[in-house]
Protein: ARM repeat superfamily protein
Amino acid sequence: MSLCFHTQDGFFCHETLQDYGDFSNDPDKKNQKSALNIFYGLALAEALLFLTEKAYWEWKVIYCKILEEVSTECRLGYSGMVSIKRFFYDAYSKCINGSIFDGLKMDLVSFAMELLSSGSSDEQLIGARILQKFSTNPEFSKDTLQKIGISISVIERLVEMLNWKDPQEEETRRAAAEILSELAGQKQNSLRVAGIPGVMESISSLLYTGRSSNGAADEICQRHVVLDHEHYEFSAFSHFGLRILKKLARDHDNCGKIGSTRGLLSKIIEFTHVDERWLRDEHVPDSQIRTVKLSLQVVKRLAITTGSTGKLLRREISEIVFTVSNIRDILQYGEKQSELQKLGIEILTSLAFEEDATERIGSTGGIIKELLHIFFKQQIPTGKRQKDVRVAAGEAVAMLALESKRNCHRILKLGVLHKLVLALGEPVLCIHSARILRNLCAYSEPGCFLHLKGVAAAAPTVSSKAI
Structure:
């Protein structure tokens, strides 16, 4: 700045003195004085223009607070000023050092994408913050995600960041997880994310319950850096990991990749566990229930997968020892969490399409009993959600009784035939009650026919409702 003032002073002195020598006798230099006046005048004008521009931007930045205004309009939050200042000075430097068009071509999203590849952790954080804010802002998310989606290198970088375990990089890792969870919500971008090598393993690294005492060795290695960090937000990363998986699981091929990733299914099932005290508490933290709900939604999407992939997934899910027992706990204690109950019941219904899974579910202590308890339970007042749960429970019992002599025997042992016959008169329950009775009559062992005598009088109703 001082150099500009000195230069301007020099030009001013030259213009004032105009001591260029005497060229009156030299015809070749008769225009030299005018030429020098023009030259020094242009130089002085350039210096004045530069100083005017400098003063203008000082006024806009300091007094008009243009950077604060941009940060507010872009909704960049508390850290927005750091990002905006960095972007402004980079754009200004390009205008000064190169062409003004170099600066005009810059935009915040492209700038942030470049910073992700920087070797500086501070610059990476600035880039991640900008992309996080823009991708979650309804006003800018569509264009931002579209721009990120066409850059495979940026998606790869974001996936790589999911594996960062240093507590100093926690915010960057969290921002990358949130960006990917938004990116996975768009079908085309979801396929691009799933196509990145090692992406499922990276997502798996986000999931941590803290309950596994004998986890796999690779899992322990992944966590050892952050386990001693008191304030590390494991729950937030688990939430984003499940959100990404839920969105990826909308694609059939992605479901297969999730199932074939070592240890990932077991981790997802771990999150379906919820303590009895949380299920009974009306004031349970939303974050706790939201995570359980997400895990159940992921399992449900995997369980309803079609074809040979779905058959394999249902078998693997049912073979995990805690799958059915965790759902049983939700059915037993989750009266206040009807949404969780419905998701758990729908998972059981889907798993029951496989013969082996049907037997595992039926042999898990109390599962059929809890389903029937929900099916028959009448609540006052009866809301739509409670009705939906009861209907889902009836459908699950009907599926478990289908072509399963053992499950039919278990149902008959509970002594619920009279209740099933009475349920034929309830509009909400009649269809599934009829299907359960029909399956009991069709698939029970010959020795159980004495128990079914009471169904004879209701046979016409069963036949008409079960079709």
